[in-house]
Design a protein that fits this description.
By secondary structure, the protein is an alpha/beta fold. It is built from eight helices and six strands; from the N terminus they run βαβαβααβαβαβαα. It has helices at 30-43, 67-78, 89-93, 99-110, 132-138, 153-160, 179-187, 201-208; strands spanning 18-23, 47-52, 84-86, 115-119, 140-144, 168-169. A six-stranded parallel sheet has the order 3-2-1-4-5-6, sandwiched between helices.
């Protein structure tokens, strides 16, 4: 197994309860921070890995800010929490960023079955994930709320059958901030105050004002 120094946790303690929070983080926002902190507390994690996507499977790379920007933004906004570590694994691995490869790598690295955090919207297309049934066997799937009324739960239950009962639904505030909305507001010259951490807000405005928007 290849090890990447940028992935190794700075903690010296045994990691038994590992969380993985992946996504494009295009850009990261205050909602991501809230979810990460609640996940640490509710799941009693020893470590939460934040893993930005390098080459997403279902959207054009041209719609993303450069990986290095998103990676550095995440490191900046999570730098004060020693139980959160930002990993560049998906860039260093290369290729399309399928979640199962990330899960396999960190499961072996820490010898544990990880808690895998996803937004509730994933329930609307979970069968499109690469090797999704195998992935769900390898993780504790943790879903955080994004909508009122749980619109995709019954759909996911029909697809996942018994596996649906193993999902952990995270009891967190409903934070309806989205990276898509932030990008749209930047392009329109509207305020994103309160949506994005102050430490990165000017860079976010600069990067996204001219970036191609994903229309898929």
């Amino acid at each position: 197994m290849t090890l990447f120094t940028s992935e190794i946790s700075p903690l010296n303690t045994k990691i038994e309860r590992l969380g993985i929070f992946g996504g494009s983080f295009n850009p990261p926002h205050n909602g991501h921070i809230i979810i990460a902190n609640y996940a640490l507390e509710i799941l009693k994690l020893d470590l939460l890995l934040i893993v930005p996507t390098f080459h997403p499977a279902h959207k054009p790379v041209s719609s993303l800010a450069p990986f290095e920007r998103r990676y550095e933004w995440l490191k900046k906004i999570f730098r004060r929490n020693d139980k959160i570590f930002v990993s560049s694994f998906e860039k260093e691995r290369g290729g399309i960023s399928y979640s199962i490869y990330t899960v396999d790598h960190f499961s072996k690295l820490y010898s544990t079955k990880p808690y895998f955090l996803v937004g509730e919207d994933v329930l609307s297309y979970i069968e499109r994930w690469y090797r999704y049934e195998e992935l769900l066997e390898k993780v504790h799937l943790v879903v955080y709320p994004r909508y009122c009324g749980k619109p995709y739960h019954e759909r996911a239950r029909k697809i996942l059958k018994d596996m649906f009962d193993d999902i952990i639904f995270l009891d967190t505030p409903l934070v309806q901030i989205s990276s898509t909305e932030i990008r749209k507001r930047v392009k329109k010259g509207l305020s994103i105050d309160g949506m994005v951490p102050e430490s990165i807000i000017e860079e976010v405005r600069e990067v996204y004002k001219d970036l191609e928007e994903d229309t898929h």
